[in-house]
Design goal:
268 residues; alpha/beta; seven-stranded parallel β-sheet
């Protein structure tokens, strides 16, 4: 179930952060890529870096919260790449605020990108993968998909949804020779805070500090994600702290929820 030698991939949220790192990682395999994002300038820069790394990239403007935009990626992939072997549903946003205080408009924005964006990507490409009896989805969730983070309910809800969606999709597509991997990293440097909503200076500083650790950044996460795809794994949990939380959630959920997580994350 590993990727072809020169894979053809569609990547959403490809203009920066993990999307860019995944594009560069695949470029090392001389991949042909369709980079989808609302940030045209960032997408063009990613395409330049892909070319420098040995790959080929095409860019397309896409709002993943709009089903028509995502559906159009199927035809764009056929035109630009000659087909598709890997779909990376990566685009994501965040908004900070307690339940009952975060506006429903912000809830809708986060749900539209983080959850509906992944649903749209799976809905659009699953029929093609079934028909060709090959292909792989890499859906980007987060450790927030199995951890409760005070003030980040909208983010946690969407990422938990991506985990559940991926688990179900894996069962549905396995008989057709199609793979699904859900990626659940913890903190690493991205633009998600800068582009997020309702972060005050204190919360922004805390998150950026957690994101700043050395050696475990986007390039590392991208490499581990593609390794998981090659291995046909359902779960990719690249950070050691995430793996600890993931196991503890299953072994001692009450203790984890009321003790460790509240102490570590309550300061947010």
């Amino acid at each position: 179930m590993s990727l072809p030698k020169q894979p053809r991939a569609v990547i959403t949220g490809a203009a920066s952060g993990l999307g860019r790192a995944l594009a560069i990682e695949l470029a090392g395999r001389h991949a042909k890529l369709l980079l989808a994002d609302l940030n045209d300038e960032g997408s063009r820069e990613t395409a330049r870096l892909v070319a420098d790394a040995g790959g080929e990239a095409h860019t397309v403007r896409c709002d993943v919260s709009r089903s028509d935009d995502v559906a159009a990626l199927v035809g764009e992939a056929d035109r630009a790449l000659g087909g598709v072997d890997l779909v990376v549903n990566n685009a994501g946003v965040s908004a900070f605020g307690n339940i009952g205080e975060l506006s429903l408009e912000d809830w809708s924005w986060v749900m539209g990108v983080n959850l509906w964006g992944v649903i749209h990507g799976c809905h659009a490409f699953a029929p093609r993968f079934r028909e060709q009896r090959s292909g792989h989805f890499l859906n980007v969730a987060s450790a927030a998909g199995f951890l409760a983070v005070p003030g980040a309910a909208s983010y946690c809800v969407t990422k938990a949804g991506v985990v559940a969606l991926s688990e179900t999709l894996r069962l549905e597509l396995a008989p057709h020779g199609v793979g699904v991997t859900v990626l659940c990293p913890t903190f690493f440097k991205t633009m998600i805070v800068e582009s997020g909503r309702n972060y005050d200076a204190k919360r922004k500083a805390v998150v950026e500090k957690l994101m700043g650790r050395k050696g475990l950044q986007a390039d590392y996460v991208a490499r581990r994600a593609i390794e998981a795809v090659d291995a046909g794994l359902l779960y990719a949990v690249p950070h050691s702290d995430g793996r600890w939380f993931w196991r503890a959630k299953r072994a001692m959920p009450e203790l984890l929820h009321h003790g460790v997580v509240s102490r570590l994350l309550g300061k947010l």
